[in-house]
Amino acid sequence: MKDKRVVFMGTPEFAVPVLKELIKNTNVVLVVTQPDKFVGRHKELTKSPIKKLAEENNIKVFQPIKIKEDYMEVLNQNPDIIITCAYGQIIPTILLETPKYKAVNVHASLLPKLRGGAPIQKAIIDGYKETGITIMYMVDKMDAGDIIKQEKLEITPTDTYLTLHDKLSPLGAKLLMETLPSIFNNTNQSIKQNEEEVTYAYNIKREEEKLDFNKTSIEVYNQIRGLNPHPLSYVELNNTEIKVVESILSDSSIGNPGEIIDITKEGIVVKCSDKSITITKIKPSGKKEMKALDYVNGIGKKNLIGRVLNE
Questions:
Q1: Is residue 310 in some structural domain?
Q2: Residue 165 and residue 76 share a domain
Q3: pLDDT in tens for each of the 311 residues of the chain?
Q4: How far, in Å, CA of 84 to CA of 104, rounded?
Q5: What is d(CA 168, CA 166) in angstroms, rounded to the nearest whole number?
Q6: CATH number at residue 110
Q7: What's the domain count of the chain?
Q8: Contacts of residue 22, Cβ cutoff 8 Å, sequence gap at least 6
Q9: What CATH number has the domain bearing residue 271?
């Protein structure tokens, strides 16, 4: 496959193993990634993980603000195939149709389930028992192209966004390498997606980060896991936002939704619509992550018991 001219399009850490394998096995002539961003409290201009990897391997990098309007650099490379993985922009039709082997995407779900930009988070938040990787041809509609190959992965009850991300990322690279030969020799048996089974995983909105204790305890627990470590779920107490990092399920069913009903050695017990959860690790505004019990010790147990979060 070393003779195949590949343009790779991707941005975050998730896509790094995919690009690494492509560099080893194909001729990556161009890497397309999102523009550098100002990050952190000090607003440092930061390169994407994909840009860093490309530069380490002396591969030309292209960072259009809008690929739909600025794509000629890609066509000028005369690619045999375009491969994308978590790029972050809608790709124009001309780029999907011009290469000899078209354009292929590595997507972190079992399509047609969880189309969109947050499939890993939403798989946990929505209570999926399994997810996986899909290698698919790209079309001019979000994650709707024909499926070339898939591999499933179990979601464990303790998986977080981070742990599931770290399982799916190398799986995507492996599955792509297994699939590329059949793409290049036109022997793959791609199939159309069943539109009746489509679900969506749009990017996480700010309002989805706030915990809603009118939901069941398992739903709240899944929301906390699915947003850990980024962007993290949160609650409000004394008009102050507190990020919730980790929790465990609890059996207590007394109290009203959102009420702090107990303080245990594990943390802060909060009533949900059915049972409760125990918040075990938090990140108060402007502070580092800490055990919830350390937070309790700092402000006093009597100042928390009976309080209702998000009032």
A1: no
A2: yes
A3: 899 999 999 999 999 999 999 999 999 999 999 999 988 777 889 999 999 999 999 999 999 999 999 999 999 999 999 999 999 999 999 999 999 999 999 999 999 999 999 999 999 999 999 999 999 999 999 999 999 999 999 999 999 999 999 999 999 999 999 999 999 999 999 999 999 999 999 999 999 999 999 999 999 999 999 999 999 999 999 889 999 999 999 999 899 999 999 999 999 999 999 999 999 999 998 899 999 999 999 888 888 999 999 98
A4: 6
A5: 6
A6: 3.40.50.170
A7: 2
A8: 6, 8, 28, 83, 176
A9: 3.10.25.10
* Residue 13, domain member (yes or no): yes
Token pair 């492509």 in the structure block, residue: 22
DSSP secondary-structure letter at 129?
S
**pLDDT computed for residue 300 by the predictor:** 87
Which of residues 197, 229, 261 is at a domain's end? 197
User: Is the bond preceding 231 in cis, omega lying within 30 degrees of 0?
Assistant: yes
CA–CA separation, 84 vs 216, rounded Å? 37
Report the alpha-carbon distance of residue 268 to residue 279 in Å, rounded.
Answer: 5
What are the CB-based long-range contacts (under 8 Å, 24+) for 293-297? 293/263, 293/265, 293/266, 293/267, 295/268, 296/263, 296/267, 296/268
Domain of 11 in residue numbering reads as: 5-197
Query: What is the rounded CA–CA span in Å between residue 143 and residue 114?
Result: 9
**How many angstroms separate the CA atoms of 120 and 76, rounded?**
34
Q: Could you tell me if 45 and 145 lie in one domain?
A: yes
Q: Are 187 and 240 contained in the same domain? A: no
279 and 142 within one domain: no
Residue 74's closest CA among 56, 53, 99? Answer: 99
Q: What's the confidence (pLDDT) of residue 38?
A: 87
